[in-house]
Structures are given as structure tokens and as C-alpha cells.
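B., you asked whether I could sanity-check this one before it goes into the benchmark set. Here's the sequence:
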Amino acid sequence: MDLATFEMLLSPAGQLLLDEVADRAGKESDLALGTRLRKTYASGLVAAAVTQNHLRGKAVAKFGDDAALMYFTHDALEQSTRQRVAAHRAHRIAETGAGGVVDLGCGIGGDLVALARAGLHVRGVELDPVRAAIAAANLRALGLAGEVVTADVRSVEIGADKVAFVDP
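And here's what the prediction gave me:
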């Protein structure tokens, strides 16, 4: 998925499309659903919505109920940390008394979500603009505060009061 398509998916029309795909999945074949929806929506947007719906289903294993609200790419979902592991690490970081965390290479924001839920101020840094946009959207979708920037992690300043977090 490219950035323009993802931004269209976040638009009101894109959100309606996502809702319709989720509602009709399993009741219509992907082919029939896609054919019908392409009469109203751009084909790239329909493909993105159908893909998101499939990825949300797969993501339940890693993200539980949150998966229904989140956004993914195939590769980023595979690389993301399971919610339970991310929550454990986030609580360990919070126990140190750190006030903020900079997640270097945050991907789609799985760890950012856990860190924000642990009460930490979060900033994600991601080189891939699509993944950065997805991470920011995932924070918003779950009602969490935080910032995500598209940048090379080597160029990011980390304040003395922040913890740098890197998940290889």
C-alpha cells in the first residue's frame, strides 16, 4: 500500500468502505464484494480495504480486540511484537521512572501502543512513511497520545530525560 492510498483509507469515505467490507466479509465472496464495491470506490481503495480486513483478522492473535481498530501491512504485521510482550516491556520501562520513550524504528506502532498505555510519553521514529502513518493512525484509533515522525533514526536527538527503545 502506498501513502496516498492509506490516507484515502483514513478519510470518511475510506472508513465507510472499511466498515462495509467488515460487515460483508464472509457473507459475500471477496470477488463479488470487490466487484460490487469497485462500482462506487476506486479499485486501489477497495483492494486496500479488503486487505485491511484480512490483516485485522490475522492480527487478533497478536493484538487481541485492538486489531479490529488498527491498520497493518503484511510485512509489518509479521514483524510486530505481540501485545503481551510489548506490554511487559512497557511496564518494565515505566517502572524505571522514565517519563518518555523514543521508539527508534517503531514500525506500525505495536510497542508505541503498549508504551503509551503504560503512561509514558511516546515518540515513534520510522523511516518508511507508510509505516509511520500507520503507527500514528494506530495510536489515534486506540485513543492514545503520542507523536510519530518519518525520519532516519540516526538523525534523531533523544533528550536526557527520554529512554531510547529499539526492538531489533
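One thing to flag: The helical segments are 3-10, 12-24, 30-37, 43-63, 74-79, 83-95, 110-117, 129-141. Otherwise nothing jumped out at me.
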